[in-house]
Specification:
With 87 residues, this protein is an alpha+beta fold. It is globular. It has a two-stranded antiparallel ribbon. Strands 2-3 form a two-stranded antiparallel sheet. It binds iron/sulfur cluster (2 copies). The site of one iron/sulfur cluster (SF4) has 14 residues, from α3.
């Protein structure tokens, strides 16, 4: 994970915002999570991962923690969702 993405993840958790956590080297760039996200919060990165795929990344806002990206992803280790504890 790049320093910027690591900082983004850390700050999202600190302020307790729901967000997907995408493990870039497990992603095969199939776009199912992108199509499945009703908040349009995920996109494909222009960089390639270790497998040679453009991988999915979180745009950094608008995730509501619904989990649809997790349930649509065919790769068991590619995506997790951090769900805010806020009511
Ligand atoms: S949890 Fe829901 S809103 Fe958040 S990125 Fe995944 S599909 Fe989109
Ligand atoms: S659904 Fe999974 S494998 Fe497909 S682009 Fe999204 S994170 Fe990557």
């Amino acid at each position: 994970m790049s320093e910027n993405k690591s900082l983004l993840k850390t700050s999202l958790e600190k302020i307790n915002l729901s967000h997907p956590v995408i493990h870039k080297n497990e992603c095969k760039g199939c776009k199912r999570c992108i199509i499945g996200c009703k908040k349009n919060a995920i996109e494909l990165c222009s960089e390639l991962n270790n497998l040679g795929y453009n991988y999915a990344i979180y745009k950094g806002e608008d995730c509501n923690g619904c989990g649809d990206c997790y349930y649509t992803c065919p790769e068991p280790l590619a995506i997790e969702v951090y769900v805010s504890k806020r009511k």
